[in-house]
Fold each of these.
Amino acid sequence: MNDQHNFCMLPDDERLPSDAKALEQDFHRYLIHHLGRFLGCNPYYQFKALSYTLRDRIMTDWLNTWKQHSKAKQRRAFYFSMEFLIGRSLGNNLLNMGLSDQTEKAMESFSLELEELEEQEHDAGLGNGGLGRLAACFLDSCATLKLPMLGYGLRYEYGMFRQEIENGFQVEEPDQWLRGGYPWELERSEYTQVVHFGGRTEHFRDPEGHPRARWVDTEDILAIPYDVPVCGYRNGVINTLRLWKSTATDVFNLAEFNAGDYVESVAAKNEAEHITMVLYPNDASENGKALRLKQQYFLASASLQDVMRQWELANGQDYSDFAEYHVFQLNDTHPAISVAELMRILLDEKKLDWDQAWSITRKTMAYTNHTLLPEALEKWPVHLFESLLPRLLEIIYEINARFLKEVAMRWPGDGDRRRRMSIIEESPVKSVRMAYLAIVGSFSVNGVADLHSNLLKKGLFRDFHELWPEKFNNKTNGVTPRRWLAYANPPLKRLISSEIGDEWICDLDRLEQLKPLAEDPDFQARWRQAKQENKARLARLVEKECGTVFPLDSLFDVQVKRIHEYKRQLLNVLHVIHLYDRIRRGDAGPDWCNRCVLFGGKAAPGYQMAKKIIKLINNVAEIVNGDPAVGDRLKVAFLPNYRVSSMEVIAPGTDLSEQISTAGKEASGTGNMKFMMNGALTIGTYDGANIEILNAVGEENFFLFGLKVEEVEALRRH
Ligand SMILES: *Cc1c(COP(=O)(O)O)cnc(C)c1O
């Protein structure tokens, strides 16, 4: 069953032919013989048949990549994230596999439009916003750079909710993205793991006299992995995203079964399946529900056990150089419980002593911080740990006791500092500070933009920076140019490649080569033509979804992102009201620039203020668009259900990108980058990665305004 035992790679002639004719035949065969549908069937099945056709062509490279990674003695990265906001995969996979043209041709022979089939795919909305999309972009980039990286996440039955707008209000509908089947996933039940909850701990001495612990009387839940291929850009590398689904063990409630409560005990299976049922729709705020902690531990435990299973296939139980071959990157504190879980496995199951286990943990864990907002800093009440994860709590206490000794050695007598730095917060509710656990257990702590990383060192993590300055570093966020430019913007892609070739797709700095063309009238005309095509596509989307007509000769002014007070959609809509007022007052003179203002984004279902902002935007839109005195001078629309696939249309069609968060609040932003690489100008504040973008593109492409972080702070103190 273990394919790692057989190390031979699949030969090249194992690859399926990928010419248009072969694709045509396979598509036809899948539709008729596998899915049992006629050619003129519901287009969702046409999408599925095409996806299977493509997946077949991914398989050989996927198996070979897997084999190579398990064979090579190299350090591998494991990206632990509660969110992967993947969006659609068909078009992006075709691009990366280099099969778009043949496929388009093959579909034409059935009179099918490739683009229409692509639109059949449900977005895999397994994330809230920037943090989840970053994870998805990292997967693409690591595969393209041939880095051995495996993504670990959860296979939520229901992803991010579908947003509908009724009477101007947000209404949340469940997102059944798996309905109809997800053709990209491959169940690998042979790698199922068991995850424990509840129970109690026992302490004893092993035959050598060492103190040991075991976790007993637990409730056990199965974690079944589903693998999704991650295609590198035309390099034969297919990395893996492994998503866990929870399910009951076979021995579930056997006692009840024997007592005759067969139906009851089968119904109780539901409980186990709840863990991966739904994604929590909170962006940049913690939630505090027990089920969320269960999800976090489920991800950490299943993933770490899976990594160790792979290690033991090649190395047996020898963990002496495990640390040299593994890095676990924690995407925010959501998977921070991994620090304690790795310790538990090494101590209780692999029988290492504390110092060995701690040395491995501290050399392999790395933590990415995504926010300074106090409401997003995760703290779990100790009483929750006591009932759900008693053994993990003991380990956290031990980590903390040893850590506080270190603090006391460095700052003798400084009790205040020990209280400040303790992983355990004593009041108001005794809790575990997950960020501190992540810092203490990691060799690296990074922020996600220059500004943000500096603020971490000066503010939130100041004490830790004083203790371990060498741990702190910056990794400014990024987005993949494959999806966000080459795939999303065909007209601009063609224009750029016609001038400088297509190596820019994997090396964006090469866009510098366009500089000499900036003043070339012919290039400018073609540039504008590409922009107009993209604006027409965006205007069609807005008209279809909102019923509002955007004239193509207007400025398209766009703010799409999660709705949040700090992102200041409110400031933007106040500007719209001001523009409307000017029109009404007759202050819209000859130099007036006609403007279409587009908003989009979801509010967390429990975030009342954000929901009111959505309602306000819709009310303003109704007034402005319905006022005959306004005409084409101003249009306003709120695009419902903002998601990855809508951003693929929005960013290319935008003239002006709104990045106007209060300075110091947006850790990085990634929407800002997608717009900028599609040639939009930006209006924005001194926040997150905006500053780095401004430095790269120059002041003439970036309208900078507002206070700097220090000025905001000074203003607040007044
Ligand atoms: C890029 C992206 C985000 C992040 O946008 P920000 O402007 O950085 O907050 C959120 N949601 C979706 C669907 C995205 O594509």
Amino acid sequence: MTDWKNPPKLFIPGPVHVLDEVYQQLARPTLAHRAKEYSDLHGETVTLLKKILFTEQNVFICSSSGSGGWETAARNLISDDETVLCCMCGAFSDKWASVFALNGKKVEELKVEWGQAVTAEMIDEKLSNGNYAAISLAYNETSTGVTNPLEDICKMMQEKHPEVLILVDSVSAMVGLPIKFDEWKIDMTFASVQKAFSIPPGVAVFAVSERAMAKSKTVSNRGYYFDLQQYAKNAAKDQTPTTPAIPQIMALNYQCNRLVAEGMENVWARHKEMADFVRDWAKKNFGLFAPQEYASNTLTAIANTRGIDIASLIKTIKEKHNLLFGNGYGSLKEKNFRIAHMGDMDMESLKQLLSYIDQEIN
Ligand SMILES: *Cc1c(COP(=O)(O)O)cnc(C)c1O
């Protein structure tokens, strides 16, 4: 048995480390979800989220994990006779493609090798030679530590394929990386709160464009739990279709206030500073798994160039220091290891973790 009441400090790419002051938000008295108190909490939180995402369009709070965003996009935004171009560059973007298929939607794959990014040129070429209702991509592919060039991709889409919807998984990007939802004309993006929002899991944030909302009205079999029309109807009263995870939403409100007070430019710069520090260490001691220009600012995947036993290193650091970092994902298990530097992670803790790893490998 582990001592699960005294768990290791988390340096894995989700769930991430949570501050005590955030845990305290989860301990507040619960609210009646159809009462004015809840609507005030909800409305205030959505207003803050709109500032964080630079949008004046729809923001919904959904009591699901981030995968609920995958299902919502599939069920609401693609009709059965339409095809979505799924950009696939790792485990999460691959899985999203399978979610479209599981919901009966037609999928065309744009696949690059794990560790590489999907570029605007690749997407443009595919779209120019086919008929697609939407593209899907992961802004930040958590399994490989690659950040796809979302701004470039969105600019290309505006210029060349403005009629195609842009669906973006921002689960490990939101907060840590810039998202200018309206300016970039994204149609749907989403994240779960246990990544860069630094909140325990249980809630997801969805941003949805007006044109995506209009499109969803034309799509049949949207189902019950993730029906965007139901979300919109309830959002008009600052409520949700079903009983929401109120403690997490209280924590989300708290974190959004902190983020807006800090200023998003500063938040992004803080993530870059942590990432630069971990990347410099990685390059000195190992190598980066992602190409430098696409290396993520929310987590670093470190290539196991020395052929060390990653599982045993993780175990040692956990046993000696009660700190936990991540192994490679799936088939990359021993090929790389991952250190997250998002949300309320801080430089001091990262320095400490890396110095402990130094003691083991040098
Ligand atoms: C973590 C993650 C997911 C899955 O999120 P859940 O909250 O576990 O459902 C999806 N996409 C990316 C890019 C992720 O990092």
